[in-house]
Amino acid sequence: MSRSPGPINLFEFEALARKRLPKKEYDYIAGGATDELSVERNRRAYESWALRPRVLRNVSALDLSTTVLGKKVSLPVLLAPCGGHKKAHPEGEIATYRAAAAAGTILAVSANASTSFEALARAAAGRLWLQFYPFRDREMTKSWLRRAQEAGYEAVCITLDSVWPSKRERNIRNNYKQLRGVNYPKAAPGKSPVRGGGDPAATWKDLEWIKSQTELPVVAKGIMTGEDAELCAEAGADAIIVSNHGGRHLDNTLATVEVLSEAVAAAKGRVEILLDGGVRRGADVVKALALGARAVFIGRPLFWGLAVDGQQGVARVLEILREEIEITMAKCGRSTVASIDSTVVVKAPPL
Ligand SMILES: Cc1cc2nc3c(=O)[nH]c(=O)nc-3n(C[C@H](O)[C@H](O)[C@H](O)COP(=O)(O)O)c2cc1C
């Protein structure tokens, strides 16, 4: 009897993960804010760019490697900071990190990780970033910056779009309770715990302050306008992630790939531009690179990989994307990531 190949694309990974996960966990991961228009738009927007195939350009040897913050990654796909990988597999972030390390890419570890930052760093010899928020408690921020540096994390990623809670209706209906990450300090008796998403009073001064407190590169996550891309550059950020949090915070935004060019223009080469949201196919990655992203992240698909087969599942998700990027690059006549320029895509007229 021939063996089933298992899921052959990221949509099939999601379908299988959906069968395996408890409904409320699936809904938590897949869901977004209010009507989930931004979740859908992040995906659909890729259809509005078409690829421009090129032929006879010697694509016999493809190189998918590139650099992010000056360091090499073996493909332009990184793993986005997402809380609670143990929701999808008991090995949680450790399984994800081992898969990322084996694939030669970076895992951005969420403030809400279900594994300690230090234990995770010891679990593989790969590359990690640490994500957190502009917290009100500056001593805690300093302590997390210290912990990140001492444990060998290579950058900090500050998520700026979550300081106000969102309305996720699936979670409300399911009475879903989000547990606090294990890395947060316990609240002192009589004091309220640090707010998970950061301080609603935060301003650009806070990002400048974080930058002044660390030698690690600072990546600003959650940028959707040219104005904010400009302010990130002025605040000294080293990179920005064009992101609407996978449509999980504010609904009714444009798709991330639709605002990418605006961010690229405003940044004027001062910061690296990364992107996440709705990346599910190798062609999506190539389109985002053609429109000016240095690399992209995947969020939900890492959970689908974990739910289907732990570390191997995440490895397979990355492998599928790698294969699809290769096909797209070869057929667009591009053998290196650096050669993926704006002439690879064209805005497709609506059908
Ligand atoms: C279950 C889940 C948890 C997430 N947790 C965080 C988080 O702790 N911090 C953060 O900055 N972004 C978080 N995100 C957002 C991701 O970093 C990323 O922006 C988004 O998932 C990208 O969109 P995609 O899921 O369509 O790939 C989370 C996303 C998901 C699906």
- In the CATH scheme, the class would be Alpha Beta
pLDDT averaged residue by residue: 97
Largest sheet: 8 strands, parallel
> What overall geometry do the principal axes of the alpha carbons give?
globular
Q: Which architecture name does CATH use?
A: Alpha-Beta Barrel
Q: Structural class, from helix and strand content?
A: alpha/beta
CATH superfamily: Aldolase class I
Counting H and I runs of at least 4 residues, what is the number of helices?
12
| CATH fold topology | TIM Barrel
E-strand count: 12
Number of domain units = 1
If strands are numbered along the chain, what order do they take across the biggest sheet?
A: 4-11-10-9-8-7-6-5
What series of H and E elements makes up the topology?
HHHEEEEHEHEHEHHEHEHEHEHE
The small-molecule ligands in this entry are:
flavin mononucleotide
Unreliable residue stretches = none
What separation lies between the terminal Cα atoms? 44 Å
Strand content: 5-15%
- Rg is 19 Å
The percent range for helix content is 25-40%
Could you provide a short overview of the structure?
With 351 residues, the chain is of the alpha/beta class.
